[in-house]
Structure formats: structure tokens, C-alpha cells
Specification:
Elements (H helix, E strand, L loop, with lengths): L3 H30 L10 H39 L1 H8 L1
Length: 92
């Protein structure tokens, strides 16, 4: 079964990465234009981007792992149900 924690990690990481990335670009362009400056709060935006990318990666790996485990169990269950050993006997 797919783990809800990994789905939550993907969603949370994606939100953090997107908001941190867009916010960093806004502050960067604003500071180049002379409208904004890098404050202590503005330094949290790149940190949010990096943390969000890490959480997103971890959640995606966990989600992929659970999906592949689910697929492997489904395939073995299918071969057990069809009893492929009888097919092997027929082919020999």
C-alpha cells in the first residue's frame, strides 16, 4: 500500500521548493533593481528551497519504493494465481 507519509512529504516539499524558489528570485531581482534588500527573512527563502527540494526527493524515493514493492507483490500474486509452474511443465 502507498504510504501517506511519503505523499505528504512530496506535497510539502514541492510547496516549500516552489515558494522558496520563486521568493528567492523575487528578492534577487528586487535587490538587483534596488527595490529590495536581503534581510534575515529573505535568507530563509533559499533555505526553504533547499529544504523543500530535500523533502521532495526523500518523499519521491519513498513513494517510488512503495509503488515498486506494490508492483512486485502484485506480479508474484498473479503468477501464484496462474500457477506458472504448470506452464513450465507443459513446455518441457
Amino acid at each position: 500500500m502507498v504510504d501517506a507519509e511519503s505523499i505528504a512529504a512530496v506535497v510539502t516539499g514541492l510547496l516549500l521548493a516552489v515558494l522558496g524558489g520563486i521568493g528567492t528570485l523575487v528578492v534577487l531581482v528586487g535587490s538587483i533593481a534596488g527595490v529590495l534588500e536581503w534581510t534575515a527573512l529573505a535568507w530563509l527563502l533559499p533555505l526553504g528551497f533547499v529544504a523543500g527540494a530535500g523533502i521532495l526527493t526523500w518523499g519521491a524515493v519513498e513513494l517510488l519504493s512503495s509503488v515498486t514493492d506494490l508492483g512486485a507483490e502484485g506480479l508474484s500474486g498473479l503468477t501464484r494465481r496462474l500457477d506458472t509452474s504448470d506452464l513450465r511443465k507443459l513446455l518441457d
